[in-house]
Amino acid sequence: MFGMMKKEKTAALLLGITMSLTGTALAAPADTAQDIDSRIAALEQQQSNLEKEIKELRHQNSQLKNQERSQKKQLNGLSKSVKSEMDRIKISGFGRVSWDNDNIKGYIDRNDNRRFYLDLKGKFKVNDDWNFNFESETNPRYANYVMADGTLKSHSGHDDEDGTIQRVWAEGKTGVVNYDIGRRWRGLGFQNVLLGNETDGAVISTAIPKSKLTANAFYLTPTDKGYNFSVYGAGVQGQIGHGLQINAAIAKLNIGKHESMGQNVYDTTKTFKVEGTNATIKDLSGTIKGGGDFTWYGGQAGDKSYGEFNSDPGFSIYYTPGLSGTVDASGKYTVTETPSELPNTAGNLGFVLSAMWNPMKNIFLIGDYARTNAPSYKVGEWGANGYQETKYDKNSCTALRLNYRWSNINDPGSFQLYARWYNYARNINNLVGIFGDKEWGALQPGSKGWIFGFKYVPAKNIEWETFYEYANAQNTLYGHKGETYHRNFLRTMVDYHF
Asked: pTM of the prediction?
């Protein structure tokens, strides 16, 4: 019983505590219920408002996500468009610092390759099949112009290729036929012996079915000042066996075998034309040729006496550059200047046989043999030892090269060692083959000798090349063309590719 009474007291005590905590809630149950209802209604209204706000926020969030997706699509599209447009334009090339030491004997600048050089190329994509290209060369020299005859002058400003755009051409294809049209540098053979020069024209090529060969046809016109002829022909290049490639071509000139190749704008003849009779020439020194009956009153041609023409109705006097003095003559007096003709030193037909063989790892043999049907000729000149005639009766050029490894501008530390031998026929126009590459003056016509060199890549996109040449060369100075000498030639250069 005592336990039951204890439980009752405890229950009463808890009830009292609860009532004291709830205050008037139990004292006024009707008011409390109404308050709770209103509070519930308020909370329900707040919940409804929150649901509306959440719904609106969700809607806004959905819109923002849609906008974000749209913007991402637009940005991706814009990025792709920008990248696509940027991919349509590609700029590349290289800069060079070079130095030569040369004892060459001729009317050639011994310091020609003491220069800085920039080769800038651009490629513009027209569509998936065609692009258009340009090339610009800049050649500032940092040393004086020095020739073997003692000529010395300073290079002032831009004296040749001054950074203008010199070459433009299109490249493209239709089906399996490729096209190369415009002005650019082109070559025939692996070492460009028969032809390696800037040309105007077109090359059309296509792969030969069931082979690794490509056939081509070309029509090209060298752009050097004064020359006025074109070459056309066909060639084939590609792999014909294990490690063996060929590059052969035959070329026909559009002039006759004995026709002039153009005009030598650097060798002109002045003509004094006098209309009348009994003209007198006074104080004239130099080489004199003319029409009519000429009487020289001096002891020998070139002294300070005078001579006279007596011809009717007039006469002409021709002389080479360097003639000085005065002309005292009656009648009408005019002076004209005429370039000399460039003799044909290539005939009207030529070919090149070129091959590259890789017989073992890192060893490459390259050979070019070029030949034309140029006629033989003689050149007579008065020199220190009197009158001399020089024969030009060879019309072939040979170039051989042995490479150990290849350098790679993307692979720092890579290198190449090479040895070369060449034998180029004499040429009064200073040409190799038809219009072959002389490699910045290193390989001269009328020379035979060796070249030893290397290429090394010290850092990505930087290549250093140095070579030494020892050759038996022709002296091309006036009056010395029958002479030979030992040419010692050293070149070093660093190329910075971009």
From this structure: 0.76
